[in-house]
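hey team, just a heads up i'm posting the complex here instead of the shared drive bc the drive is being weird again. everything in one block, sequence lines first with there labels, then the predicted structure for the whole assembly after. its three chains so it's a bit long, scroll down
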Amino acid sequence: MKLFRKSFGGIVGFIGRIWRHRQGRIGLILLILLSLVAIFAPLIAPYDPYDVTQRADKGLAPSLEHPLGTSITTGQDVFSMLVYGTRVSLLVGLITGIAIALLGSVLGVAAGYLGGAVDMLLMRIVDVMIVIPTLPLTILITNVFGKSYVVIVLVFVLFGWTGLARTVRSLVLRLKNADYVKSAELAGAGRWYVMKTHILPAVSHLVIMSTALSCAGIMIAEAGLSFLGLGNPTAISWGKMLADAQSGGSMLFGQWWTIIATGIGIFISVFAFMRLGLAIEGIVNPGMKGGSDAKRLLKHIRGRYLDEVLESMEDGAK
Amino acid sequence: MGEKSNRKSEALVKTEHLSVRFPLKRESPFSKRRYINAVSDVSIEIFGGETFALVGESGCGKTTLADATLGFAAPSAGEVFFNGEKLDIRNKKRLKQQRRSMQKIFQDPASSMNPRFTVARAVAEPLMIRRELGEKRILSKTAEAIESVGLSSGDLDRFVSEFSGGQQQRIAIARALVSGAEYIVCDEPVSALDVSVHAQILNLLMDIQKERGITYLFISHNLASVRKFADRLAIMYLGRIVEYGDAEKVFANPMHPYTRMLIDSVLSLDGGKTAINAPPEANEAFQEEQGSYASNDDGGCGFRRRCPIGRSECESIKCSLEKVESDHYTECPYAANR
Amino acid sequence: MNVFSVRNLRVAFPTPRGIIRAVEGIDLSIERGECLALVGESGCGKSVTSLASLKLLDPSVSIVKADEHTILGENMLDKGEREMESIRGKKASMIFQDALSALNPVMSVGKQLDEVFTLHFHLKKREAKARSIEALRSVGIENPEARYRAFPHELSGGMRQRVLIAMAFASNPALIIADEPTTALDVTVQKQILSLLSEMRRKNGTALLLISHDLSVVYSMADRIAVMYSGRIVEEAPAEELIRNPLHPYTKGLMGAVVRIDDKKGRFTQIPGGLPDPANKPEGCYFAPRCAEAAEKCGKCRPKLAYTGGSHYVRCFMHGGERDGRKEQ
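-- predicted structure starts here --
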């Protein structure tokens, strides 16, 4: 029954809508490119930065052999580091983002839909989590449990789910009392049906949107932590590249290329996630989009047909 | 009896001394919990095949009363009967079965259907929930329902949000029809719409009733459409029924001062262009305070402070519905000798 | 003198579906202290007209054009947003249907009233507060000192509407535009608000542009009524004349839609169908597809607004739709 399946969502349909959205398409393309770089890093990078034997002299300027020069502290090929660094940054961003999405939405839905004691307990936990100073605690935890990405991801998830859980909860509360849910209940709908048909689809759009935006935030946070030396010291990540460049005094010796290249890497990935998140927001809340469409059309009409339109609207015009 | 020939003698929906109360927000965690009586001591009978109107201002408890007849609001006292059988909110399984013959049409059609749904899905949802019919049967029933409300089956795969308010209300009606409901609560079904559309929707509801013998509980605050639309009615004020009975009898001989106030509030095009006479110092300041703490427990008639014929006895009077004539009751003992 | 006048007002919105012709050449003029009502279904362009009257339409999404547009004799056509801000609220103000969204939810109603006095009259805070309390009292709000501190959600619908009215009259403007001021209210409250509005208007000599979809709401208030359909005025006459002697079939339909309290049980008189798609209007008279009296000509040509005597204009071929009434007078 085709008629009934054609609803707002459907994963394929949803991606299609993102694709048709100008900003969404930019985000999607960039993200696919970044993923390809991460997956095929060994093929793209001219050197293996993890291989100690492939190191060159420290702090070389960009050349044909080393397109972005070599690092000032270890003499690794910067371009290769950048390519391999994509793996860490993207992986940490995605895994954390998805984990937050799962935890936040499950707890948010539970609080909103079950209500009562569950709601009470979860919301008190959220209240406590929000006032905890995150950074000092993160430093403490990584020092105690070791500097590994597993720990970092866990810490991010631990502190990251509260905001999403809150928004999901309030959305669920609103949907639960919507007239159309009442109407479905009158028709005999049970809890599971209401959840599956009316609540989860709306929640999932919100979650996808906030995940895209939180991935961007996490990638920046990860770079920050690595820069502070809290990341895994043996892994190559963009944050660590910046930290090494800083400690080795790249700027001091005028070797700006390491810093600029890494910065561009971070910028592109954050930019991609942001575009994607904003595009989804525009699709999910149609009230916010349309403006740009109308403006473009208006410009078009102003340019050519303005007099014609106005004339056709004169009283008594045929 | 003419029009009312399809009316059965046994009430389809009946409430007996029904009260529904909601807890008020406590001023401090230590103060005693106070309640607001949204509905207090209401006994009504709605007969099969008739249109029963519930009239009153917003906040008078009419929606709560209607929701109680659908099993959405738990009675704090008294009982609700549907088809002679008690409606027990705790017996979820039985309630689910009883609700199969109930539906509700909401004031705002845009919010009464999931905006992500196509017309087909919105209308067919009750059938899809029950999973008794095959897809083909569902589809043909849906198309039939959408055509019976004056839309075309070509509209089925458009989104509900693409339609105007009046058309959306038609879709909501189609949805109620497809579920096979015999009792439909129409909660202000036209007040969000233009007057020019009111007639279309109300006529459609009347036609459907004539065809299928459906019973309506029609909630409204406009008495003029109630007179044309309803067979029997109840006028509600602060949770109590103040006048009740056959619609034509009530309109021909309105007893309660509140009923008369509502009738006077209807704007018309008749007569000369005169200055508007506001209802006697109706004083919403009072109504608002009273509305949020509506309690009829303080003794006396709830309407006394807005009443044009109020007297000192009203402060302590215990009101109850008294018979005026057959199927016409009012709470006000002084109405007759005004 | 004219308090407000607009000639040949046209408003269009470009959309992906086509150009929506919301208002097509409307003339309105309101004398000092007069009340003109604009009546029509939602989507007929009446609200757009009211917004355009105070230049409140977003120029980045709409095309607005008029041959003449004055408020108190002052030309509005070349006024910029800055200048309009000082005109709105001071010389002309507006009352909206949905008081809850027209008021700032996180600010007490008193503070919002104060702003009118501090912004437009540069009063000191204390003076503004005194004037605000006076304004609240004047719209029949009891205990205004206490209400001054109330937030919008703490007030009933009727009460909020009173606050909006107090704000609109606060600066004693020459013109007030009220867009469906009573639609969201109960019938009893509706009547109170209407009587308050007409009393305030009489006291202050304010001109009023009253917009509604319900003829019975405007009849008691308006001196003149203009009926709008699909972006055009189809009939305009003094209120009494229009109701006693409606000429346009649409006006008759709107009158039929007003249910009278002494009507017994039975079917409602209805106008079939709905407004035409504003991006794709019919070739002839816009009302022809819904009109019971439509002749062949009505489907082909568009009637003009013809003068039928006694300041009564109508756009219908049954009543001289070939003539252009504006040129006759």
